[in-house]
Design a protein that fits this description.
Order of helices and strands: HHHHHHHHHHHHH
Number of strands: 0
Distance between the termini: 33 Å
CATH architecture of one domain: Alpha Horseshoe
Strand content: under 5%
Shape: globular
Structural class: mainly alpha
Largest sheet: none
CATH class of one domain: Mainly Alpha
Helix content: over 70%
Number of helices: 13
Length: 246
């Protein structure tokens, strides 16, 4: 399993109600920290916090799905698939995990298996936003109607996660080079969460791609939020040298 062989969690269980309440509180803290670091573009630290949340409470689906997502963000697709499989042993047929496993498989150049897991994710009674986002990603080279339809369903299913869903939708649309549509979503994200360096970075890349002058300011904001955000540093360097990102 390489450097991720000890990602998972401890098997210790709380003794007594007070201890259980404390562990639950600790898990919430680490989940909040993980989300904060993810949105800042620090995937390694976010991963560590998701893992620490699972050490406190291994029943938290957010910890499992977050752990898999961060491995995907880090480009560790085989590891992401492995941990998604482990998570599905605890949460069989959970659409978030099925969708994330589909993304990991697609990025690991296993499209047939990716489609199988995506089919399962959207076949449940109430598919989640992540199930539809995953489907949008694995079909992102298909016709607009397919991708935009999946994104629309993800938005409809987002609930309290609407801003996060818009971030992911914007990232998918950026990869499709649908820059105006991506900018619309990403602008909503940075308005709702001004500390989301990842969203500022994605927004800046889209703005640069279509020659908007706001690109440098967006990228610099991403770097102010996370001074170690290497993609933002590289993007600014390329911008200053007058080169496109893509």
């Amino acid at each position: 399993m390489g450097r991720f062989s000890r990602l998972e969690f401890g098997d210790s269980k709380p003794s007594g109600t007070a201890r259980a309440d404390q562990l639950l509180s600790d898990a919430d803290h680490f989940l909040q920290e993980a989300r904060r670091y993810w949105l800042a573009g620090d995937f390694e630290v976010a991963l560590r916090n998701f893992c620490r949340a699972l050490e406190q409470d291994r029943t938290r689906i957010e910890g499992w799905s977050g752990q898999v997502l961060m491995l995907i963000e880090l480009g560790e697709y085989k590891e992401a698939d492995l941990w998604a499989a482990k998570a599905l042993e605890l949460f069989p047929e959970h659409p978030d995990l099925l969708g994330l496993r589909a993304i990991a498989l697609a990025r690991d150049a296993r499209p047939r298996h990716a489609i199988q897991y995506s089919d399962k994710a959207v076949a449940v009674e109430r598919p989640t936003a992540w199930a539809w986002l995953a489907r949008a990603e694995i079909f992102k080279q298909k016709a607009d109607a397919i991708v935009l339809g999946c994104i629309s369903k993800a938005i409809a299913a987002a609930g309290n996660d609407l801003t996060i869903v818009k971030l992911q939708a914007g990232r998918i649309l950026r990869e499709r080079r649908a820059y105006p549509e991506a900018i619309s979503y990403l602008t909503d994200v940075v308005s709702a969460i001004p500390t989301a360096g990842l969203a500022w970075f994605e927004l800046g890349c889209c703005q640069q791609a279509i020659g908007l002058p706001q690109a440098k300011a967006s990228l610099e904001q991403a770097l102010r939020i996370n001074p170690q955000f290497v993609p933002a540093k590289r993007a600014i360097n390329r911008l200053e040298k007058g080169r496109l990102f893509f």
